[in-house]
Amino acid sequence: MDRGRRRRRFSRDFEDRNPSSEKFRFPLDLGDEAKGNESRSDDFDEPSKDLIRQQQQKILLDEHSSRKRRPSKFTISKAREVPSAIHGTKKDVAKDQKEESEAKEKKDGGYVSPLVEELKRQREERARRQKKKAKNQHNQYQGPLQKKGMRTAPGKLTYSSAGENDGKGPDEQNSGKASTPFNVIMTPYDKKKSQSAPNRSVKRSGPKNTLPPLEILGQQQDAQYELRDEGLGDVIVSAFQAIGVPTRLRDVKTNGVTARYELSLDRNFRLNVVGKLKEHLLPYLPFDDMKIIAPITGTSNIGIEFMLPEPYPISFATLFTSSSLKLRKNDYKFVMGKTVDDQIFSFLLPKAGHILLYGGNDTETSSVIDNILVSLLMNHSPDELRIHVASDKAHYDAYKDLPHMFSTPKSIGDKTVLEDVLNELNNRHNQFRRANVRNLSSYNQRVSNDAKKSVIAVVIDDLSDLFEYNNPEAIRAIVQLLKKGKPLGMHLILNHSRSDVGIRFELLQQMQTRLSFKDEKSKVIDGSNELAEGNDMLVQIPISNQPVRVNAGILTPEIKQRIFSHIKGMRK
After folding, report:
1. What is the DSSP secondary-structure string of 80-110?
2. β-bridge pairing 455-461 and 513-516
3. Are 456 and 388 in contact, with CB atoms under 8 Å apart?
4. How far apart are CA 345 and CA 405, in angstroms?
5. What is the pLDDT of residues 437-452, one digit of tens each?
């Protein structure tokens, strides 16, 4: 067998025969009883070696038990004393001396962390600088007072009275009073307050622009419109009885222009056939047209709405003073008119988005646009509201010289009629994107007062003429305003008076607020074919699925001219 492949085994006989090998015995080794007589005889042969080994083990154990564990260098024996901004750094001399003596004793007998020593040194240096700074400021203001011969208590300052001039001008006296010593007792708020104290004596200037007062709006609506006409109610009840439908009058509501008579029918009568009774009822009624509501929302009764034979015009003063607009808030709320149940119809321009007026003649549509614009002008300064007019009508000549105008009014056929508005739209889009905001209110909250953007109302009268003039630049600008204008604070007020000129469905869907006068085909709002001719319209707002019947307020040329004269006289 090859020697390289031999299995190496441990030979105990070789170890016993080798006298140079030293055996280390363990304390719990019971080798005397296990090995027998041979091992016992070997132990008795060398008793001196066992004694020496025991003494060495004892010395090693004693040294190991007496060794002290060295503390970590990251261990902080005492927390750092943080100085207070109000009360300063308070130190106890006896306590500091005691700590220094303990540190010396610990340094002589134990380990001292260098990190703790460095923190202590920085703390003492900081307290020394603060104390030196307070002392210098105290001496700076104490010196001029001591030169005048005034006695001051230590740590306190005494100023001369307001009547003593001592040969100094008013500027020097104000400069002496404006500065107050700053020490560790004073907070930064107290220092700022004391330095700004002389500014309070400066007289504050009032607002540059004053809003038009409510007194120039003229008279309110005649209060006689609220009187209930019992005779007309009896005529309506008798008309139903004449066609064989027994009814009973429940309630009457009117706004002075339109009235609603609420009637109750027999329980067995089907309400879905009430609409077919209109042709049978008109011959027995004293008016030419009416609208039947079956049923009235929230009740089982029906309503008969019609224009009063002797209407009481709704004045603009009644609309403005009877709504929240009289609080003069800058919330961009406008008012249009009254509903049939004698409620003021007002809405916010930021929520309304873009407004479309469909149908009606020039007098009716111009009255609604005047109500919207004048209600905004009454509560907003030129810095908050801007108006741009694109129209050929002489009705808007009174708006030309107003400080609220965004640019000079231009003709609807001009190719650059909306060029300035489109440039402003693109600039705002880029600025809002760089500011990482999405709407006008968020942008104005992040910038200063000088950089705030105003709301722009763009009036286009008439949209049907614009389509006929074949002005593609203006139509392209309108499309961009409809898509991007609402969050950027730019709103369109579009008037489309001619029903023979159609509006594309894509454009119509982007006009959130719609007003429709009488329209036989009901192209814009369903139910507009049942309206009466004249001051009668349906309004569809974004937050409601049901249109509301509204009668517009009347703003006379005299009242409008009085308001514009006050606005033009504003100080710029």
Report:
1. --PPBTTTB----HHHHHHHHHHHHHHHHHS
2. unpaired
3. yes
4. 26
5. 999 999 999 998 889 9
The answer to whether the CB of 508 falls within 8 A of the CB of 524 is: yes
Helices 557-568 and 362-379 cross at an angle (nearest 10°) of: 30
* Distance between CA atoms of residues 558 and 215, nearest Å: 13
Residues 6+ positions from 447 with CB-CB distance below 8 Å? 435
pTM of the model: 0.64
Among residues 239, 260, 240, which one has the least CA distance to residue 251? 260
Closest CA to 347 of 332, 361, 358: 332
Q: Which residue type sits at 333?
A: K
Give residues with Cβ within 8 angstroms of 278, minimum separation 6: 290, 292
Task: List pLDDT tens digits, range 441-480.
Answer: 999 999 988 899 999 999 998 888 888 877 889 999 999 9
Looking at the chain, the whole-number percentage of residues with pLDDT higher than 70 is 70
d(CA 278, CA 293): 11
Q: What local confidence, expressed as pLDDT, does residue 136 receive?
A: 83
Helix (H) or strand (E) holding 456: strand 455-461
Give the residue from 474, 511, 481 showing the smallest Cα distance to 357. Answer: 511
Sign of CA dihedral 292, 294, 298, 300: positive
By DSSP bridging, strand 455-461 and strand 490-496 are parallel
Q: How far apart are CA 464 and CA 466, in angstroms?
A: 5
Three-class DSSP labels, 39-56: HHHHHHHCHHHHHHHHHH
Greatest Cα-to-Cα distance within the chain, rounded to the nearest angstrom = 150
Q: Sheet containing 385-391: give its strands across.
A: 344-348, 333-339, 548-552, 537-540, 513-516, 355-358, 490-496, 455-461, 385-391
Place of tokens 């970590």: 72
Contact 162, 174 (CB under 8 A): no
Q: What are phi and psi of 471, to 5 degrees?
A: -105, 85
pLDDT, tens only, 312-328: 999 999 999 999 999 99
| pLDDT of res. 169 | 45
The neighbouring-strand residues paired with 540 are: 514
Reported as a pLDDT band with limits 50, 70 and 90, residue 201 is low
In degrees and rounded to multiples of 5, residue 425 shows phi and psi of -60, -45
In the sheet with 247-254, reading across from the earlier edge strand, the strands are 247-254, 258-265, 302-307, 291-293
**Quick check: 361 and 499 in contact, CB under 8 A?**
no
